[in-house]
């Protein structure tokens, strides 16, 4: 099983409180410390299965909530899901259709399947982050926000610098629910600058 399902206090709390995964507490922590989601935001969550971030997003915003994943996501009231590859232009067009135009926030808590080889896994995680950023650049509205999980390593500064090219305010944050010893870190980017991009 992946570490996400290891039975620690956050796993137990998630099961008790009805969240599909312990990762819900990471987003709650991010929102509490560095508010990103507003009450009327349209939000797209990438790599959304099993849906714990979607559950949290539904409580934070009354706007349209869309989840995208290669795997099916069990239905959630008030949430629209797309089964597909978020790098696919057709999937991105479907997102814009469902959102009624550019979206307010893109979140991504996705991780590649880990091989156990640290440098290889970190490189794959950075590549996934770059793809999530490219998606955000294509669908975000001016002033939109972006949250993306990544992993510290030699390639991380390049991803961080690329995010800074597109957003006015960028910082990193490690939620309290992150596992001890994990190299994961979240990039929190605010105020997307559309005029400097070739996006829609």
From TrEMBL:
The active site is at 149 (proton acceptor). Pfam families: FtsJ (PF01728). Its EC number is 2.1.1.166. Its main location: cytoplasm. InterPro entries: RNA_methyltr_RlmE, RNA_MeTrfase_FtsJ_dom, rRNA-MeTfrase_E, SAM-dependent_MTases_sf. Residues 19-192 form the Ribosomal RNA methyltransferase FtsJ domain. It comes from the Archaea. GO terms for molecular function: rRNA (uridine-2'-O-)-methyltransferase activity. One of its GO terms (cellular component) is cytoplasm. The keyword Chaperone does not apply. It is an enzyme of class 2 (transferase). It is found in: Cytoplasm. It catalyses: uridine(2552) in 23S rRNA + S-adenosyl-L-methionine = 2'-O-methyluridine(2552) in 23S rRNA + S-adenosyl-L-homocysteine + H(+). Keywords: Cytoplasm, Methyltransferase, rRNA processing, S-adenosyl-L-methionine, Transferase. S-adenosyl-L-methionine binds at residues 51, 53, 69, 85, 109. Specifically methylates the uridine in position 2552 of 23S rRNA at the 2'-O position of the ribose in the fully assembled 50S ribosomal subunit. Belongs to the class I-like SAM-binding methyltransferase superfamily. RNA methyltransferase RlmE family. This is Ribosomal RNA large subunit methyltransferase E. The lineage of its organism: Archaea, Methanobacteriati, Methanobacteriota, Stenosarchaea group, Methanomicrobia.
């Amino acid at each position: 099983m992946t570490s996400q399902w290891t039975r620690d206090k956050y796993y137990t709390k998630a099961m008790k409180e009805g969240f599909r995964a312990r990762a819900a507490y990471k987003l709650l922590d991010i929102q509490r410390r560095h508010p990103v989601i507003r009450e009327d935001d349209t939000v797209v969550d990438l790599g959304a299965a099993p849906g714990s971030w979607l559950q949290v997003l539904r409580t934070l915003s009354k706007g349209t909530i869309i989840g995208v994943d290669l795997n099916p996501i069990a239905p959630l009231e008030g949430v629209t899901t797309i089964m597909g590859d978020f790098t696919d232009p057709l999937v991105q067009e479907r997102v814009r259709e469902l959102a009624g135009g550019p979206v307010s926030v893109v979140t991504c808590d996705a991780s590649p399947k880990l091989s156990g080889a640290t440098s290889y896994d970190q490189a794959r995680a950075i590549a996934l982050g770059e793809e999530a950023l490219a998606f955000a650049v294509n669908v975000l509205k001016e002033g939109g926000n972006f949250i993306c999980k990544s992993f510290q390593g030699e390639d991380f500064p390049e991803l961080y610098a690329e995010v800074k090219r597109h957003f006015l305010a960028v910082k990193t944050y490690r939620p309290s629910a992150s596992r001890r010893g994990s190299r994961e870190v979240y990039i929190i980017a605010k105020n997307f600058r559309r005029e400097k991009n070739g996006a829609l």
